[in-house]
Amino acid sequence: MTLASQRSSILPDRITTPTLRTFLRSVPSVDDVGAEERVASLSTRSIKRESKMDALNLIIRMIDLTTLEGQDTAGKVAQMSAKAIRPDPLDAEIPSTAAVCVYPNMVKYAVQATEGTTVKVASVATYFPSGLADTDLKVEETSRVVTEGADEVDMVIDRGAFLSGEYFKVFDEIRRVKDACGDAHLKVILETGELGNLDNVRRASMLAMAAGGDFIKTSTGKIQPAATLPVTLIMLEAIRDFYEATGVMVGMKPAGGIRTSKDAIKYLVVLNETLGTEWMTPDWFRFGASSLLNDVLMQIRWLKTGRYWSSDYFTKD
Amino acid sequence: MSEAAEIAKSSSAPLQWEYASSTEATDILELESRYGLFIDGEFVKPKSRRYFETINPATEEPIAEVAEAGAADVDAAVAAARKAHTEVWGPMPGSERAKHIFRIARMIQERSRELAVLETIDGGKPIKEARDVDLPLVAAHFFYYAGWADKLDYAFPGIRPESLGVAGQVIPWNFPMMMLAWKVAPALAAGNTVVLKPAETTPLTALLLGQIAAEAGLPPGVLNVVTGAGETGAAVVAHDDIDKVAFTGSTAVGKMIQAQLQGTKKKLTLELGGKAAHIIFEDAPLDQAIEGVINGIFFNQGHVCCAGSRLLVQENIHDRFVDKLKKRLSTLRVGDPLDKNTDVGAINSRAQLNKITELVEAGRSEGAEMYQPECALPERGFFFRPTLFTNVAQSHRIAQEEIFGPVLSILSFRTPEEAVEKANNTPYGLSAGVWTSKGSRILWMADQLKAGVVWANTYNKFDPASPFGGYKESGFGREGGRHGLLPYMKWSEG
Question: ipTM, 2 decimals?
């Protein structure tokens, strides 16, 4: 059985907006208070010494180091890529980040800068961040970034269509973008800050996975709130349900607003206790972040030397 | 393979992430090797000259020796309480009593870490719970009732309340500090003095509270702590000069007390056992319901009178729900209660462990299907694996008797009516839980269930302002809230 047919095995035979609506209604509801209590209780996990060091190194390997600014330049992308490859010039033991994440126009510079390294190039696409464009244009943009060498594509869903119940439009767009990705990995951004409630987060997660997303991702980073622990918990639970129903593993990427090691470790705890060890790898979990990296480097330096170093000792690229 | 490819390969190996143990330091505690009785504002040697050991159930190591109060000691405690009530505490204006109780509440907050560590060492509960649940609620309870002390005249319109006199209070080992707070705080606020008998396996935090009360300047005799086992408790209950008995514990002992007090003027409240139904409908928020069920039965190792020990799942989601529950069980961390990451700690005593083991054996031999996750238990100490039983019938002992341990019996139902019938088909009636997305059904269920507390889409939620207590053999009288004052008052009209 192909992956695609495994994925669609949970879907109705004929995929239309009404059948998709029925499918999404079968997704368990979410109690917001309970979800928040669960993450609050996991947030009291006490992570010490060696397990903290393991976590910090893993967090770096999971980072999609990101710049998504209107003022981005080729130079800025090259500098950030250098940081992604060798995050700490003073410490060769520090691993590279998983990827750099840039706008479509910057893909070629990122590809150049990361050539010959393990750092992958992720490009946002589909008229990020609003996604308000014709599907054809989105597909075309996706093909272009893949042709230019992007290994991963971060698309946005059409929130307007989802919220107004046009589930087929959302589904079909993801499916077509996935086709355009070819071998590139597709991350589907739900923009949970615009979905209104956790029930919608869970439903959108199922729709995105069934349509072909290799990863589901919380946010563009342009809308507040971006990633939160309760939203991430609900998406991880959707991933677990999807895996149990289809046997297909899907990755998770919280993005936006995760700035400290302490926060990132809480995400790892929620991941570890919701999906388990199999997902504890950059293949299945990423952080979309920029300032997080330096905080992790500072924590590692502290663990190694026993003292805090000023932020002047860490490069800002 | 190129170097880069090799790195790429190694980078995708998942991290087996074990949390290093993170043990709460115990050096904050300054324990004596031997404790006397706290009578009339000071620690005194027992006239009985007898002492008993209290041990740490997680290690089986002795912690301290504690006095065993005999009849003469109980006499002395009651006499001190009577004198304090007549001369000091009874006549004292409510606003002054409030100051004393507020001071105790603040000192509990200041010393909450110390109290939490001691609660964990003496009782076996995870430090996470003692720290985040027990102690905050204990302080909140004292604060709440301190606020009532000068407002008693307005608590019940048309009633002029008076204190009763001396309250004899006997509390259990599952929430030593919290049960103390539930009893002592309203009694003191209403102007009574107290003779408290903590459980024999967990006497230490009550003694520390005696110390705190003395340091806080509570007048001597207002709070007295007499430690000991069942005999001591019986002496307190039977004492002629006690005006009010409050007991929390087993239904069997509660019945004995009620029989004993028949024909006396003593007022009585009982908070006894439970066998709560936790009801999951098909439209429930399933993952949150799983957490609720876990919290309902494994919180405090299931040593909870209102534990959701009978799970009723609608039949069309039964298998799926049980599956999820089993998976969730395997992520529970069972072990050293002092480790901040421990979810399920030690069983309180060997006797309790034996009782749990015996009932679980009964469940197996009666034909229910048992499931326990693979998890290593510490070699020493009293521990029991989180346990589920499926295929349970109403007539099985594990569906009828209170196990008071981390053991969940699972039954299924088809209609809401059947759920109600099964839920109410027990001599107990302390609490119940309902999980559904349908608001109207929550209200209907709450109306039908014969239980003192019905939680909807949550479980084990407590607040000092909310009354708590049982129906049927779960006892009578309410603790908490305005209702919690009534058992400690007498009144005249107008």
Answer: 0.92
